[in-house]
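Just wondering, does anyone understand what follows?

——
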Amino acid sequence: EPEVTIVSGLKDMVVFEGDDVTFRCQVSHENAKDVEWKLQDVALQNNEMNEISVEKGKVHTLTLRKVTEQDIGTVAFRVGAHTSTA
């Protein structure tokens, strides 16, 4: 199985408290395994506050809903040995 790499990394975002924010990261192959999103070094799960999805097979997205001051920090996307941060 070919190694999955990050084609297009995360971009820094500035949002207002109470707004939603979406981060996108494109990978080289569809159906990538061993994918993880983190906020401030805490692994994120798909739930009512964090929407994690994949668009067109290669674009992994994380939407943080109704962000607060506690959400300030580094968002990281990892696939295998490759990481992108914003």
Notes: Strands lie at 6-8, 21-27, 35-39, 42-43, 50-55, 59-64, 75-79, 82-85. Residues 11 and 41 are 17 Å apart (CA to CA).
